[in-house]
TrEMBL record:
Its EC number is 4.3.3.7. It is an enzyme of class 4 (lyase). Belongs to the DapA family. It comes from Meiothermus granaticius NBRC 107808. This is 4-hydroxy-tetrahydrodipicolinate synthase. GO terms for molecular function: 4-hydroxy-tetrahydrodipicolinate synthase activity. The active site is at Y131, K159. The keyword Magnesium does not apply. Keywords: Lyase, Schiff base. The keyword Transferase does not apply. Gene3D superfamilies: Aldolase class I (3.20.20.70).
């Protein structure tokens, strides 16, 4: 299924102050953010999917009733684990956003990467999207592997969160048959110029409106307007990227949204909060935040 241009948040998974999954808050957060965006990603990097047990993962998805397109992150180490997660995503009608196995990645080789993704795609359990996020996985998904996987009819998209515009240029030059989305807000406009259709970005949990404005300006050929917006948004995207999920959840709580807390051993407050808060407040005064 071909999608339109979209701004999508990788929704955080709320835990309470003791570190327990808060399914009610998870549902409430999704319902609060969804009207402002074009779809939702559960269990992406900001969703702390790697911190969940199988039962918690299932319970978190069971709490959801989205009305817009949905993705579910799969960050598993083996095919057996991934196939279970794939079934759960398919039950929600979601596309699966899949990182490569990482712990023994050096022993996979090209054929191992290809076999992992092709096997998942051939289950027929929904669309498979590649997820390149080396800052978290410490794995570089090889460009030739991506080019080869793009030929599979069940592999339909890619989210590249590396911020590496050279990779975006490669995807565009090869005319890959993949829906291309960036996860990097600091160079969102650069990614659009190189063929990205939209963004699946942490900033969309807090302030999707200005990024949708930027996307609309770019589509309309209003390049100067898009550039001016990117310049204004850059400190916001860069600051949130530096603070990660701890800062994101702290910002959501500050806005009165049920973002919850990171799961221990990660702390409740980010050292980046003091510098990020004034930018967030400026955006709220502008009417750009979700609350």
């Amino acid at each position: 299924m071909i999608l339109g241009v979209m701004i999508i948040p990788p929704l955080p998974t709320p835990f309470d102050s003791k570190g327990y999954l808060d399914s009610e808050a998870f549902r409430a957060l999704a319902q609060a953010v969804e009207p402002h965006v074009d779809g939702l990603l559960f269990y992406g990097s900001n969703g702390e999917g790697v911190h969940l047990s199988k039962d918690e993962r299932r319970a978190g998805l069971a709490a959801q009733s989205p009305t817009k397109p949905v993705w579910v992150g799969l960050m598993e180490e083996t095919l057996a684990q991934a196939q279970v997660a794939l079934e759960e995503a398919a039950a929600l009608g979601a596309r699966s956003l899949v990182t490569p196995p990482r712990y023994y990645e050096s022993q996979l080789g090209t054929e191992g990467f290809l076999n992992y993704y092709r096997t998942l795609a051939e289950t027929g359990k929904g669309e498979i999207w590649l997820y390149h996020v080396p800052q978290n996985t410490k794995v570089q998904l090889p460009l030739p592997v991506i080019a080869e996987l793009s030929k599979h009819p069940g592999i339909t998209g890619i989210k590249d969160s590396s911020g590496d515009l050279a990779r975006m240029a490669f995807y565009a030059s090869q005319k890959l048959s993949l829906e291309l989305y960036t996860g990097s807000a600091p160079n969102f406009l650069g990614a659009l110029a190189l063929g990205a259709k939209g963004g699946i970005m942490a900033v969309a949990n807090l302030a999707p409106k200005p990024y949708k404005m930027l996307l609309s300006a770019w589509q309309a050929g209003k390049i100067a307007e898009a550039q001016a917006l990117q310049n204004r948004l850059e400190p916001f995207g860069r600051g949130l990227a530096a603070g990660g999920v701890v800062l994101l959840k702290q910002a959501l709580r500050h806005l009165g949204l049920p973002g919850g807390y990171p799961r221990p051993p990660y702390g409740a407050e980010s050292p980046a909060w003091a510098s990020f808060k004034p930018i967030l407040e400026e955006f709220r005064a502008e009417g750009w935040t979700v609350a």
